[in-house]
Amino acid sequence: MNKRKLFLVYLLNCIAGVSIGFYCLQRNAETGAWVLVSVVMVLAPDRDDAVKFDFNRIKANLIGALTGLLLTLIHPSNVHTMALGVLLAATICEFLNVKSATRSATVAVILISLAPAGKTFYEVAAARAIGVGSGCSIALSLTLLSHAIIPVFRKKAEHYSSQFGNFE
């Protein structure tokens, strides 16, 4: 499949992901926002690396979200817990051999740790962690689904091409 068609598949995945994320945003603003952000962050335009990229981004987001959530449960966010969270997330990425995900994981720690005024850190961290996990799952599902559908369409196109001639 040529690069333009693969890019079209990526764009369709983005449209589907944004639509699902926006629906989640309408249902629950705090969690839905993180679903939306995570879907777009995890989707990848390159078919060859898409699944590997998705898994690395999922690992990064989950490492960051869980690290931020756990530290928030231990102590409300301050410079020390954020710094510790960044160190822990980077160390976990190194230990799990997902160095390409380190930056995303450390950013996720900080984003999970920030709480807007009027909400507890626990509520915000839990909502963001749930949103990140859900968004990553949606993006991975879209990627796997589109990669499963592409060969089916390719076989049908080859079948019709062999029966009726190539019209390209």
UniProtKB/TrEMBL annotation:
Top-level taxon of the source organism: Bacteria
Subcellular compartments: Membrane
Membrane topology of this protein: Multi-pass membrane protein
Domain Integral membrane bound transporter: 27-140
Pfam families the record matches: FUSC_2
Annotated InterPro entries: Memb_transporter_dom
Keyword Transmembrane helix applies: yes
Keyword Transmembrane helix: yes
Transmembrane segments: 7-25, 81-98, 105-122, 128-153
GO cellular component annotations of the record: membrane
Keywords annotated in UniProt: Membrane, Transmembrane, Transmembrane helix
Protein name from the UniProt record: FUSC family protein
Source organism of the structure: Mucilaginibacter corticis
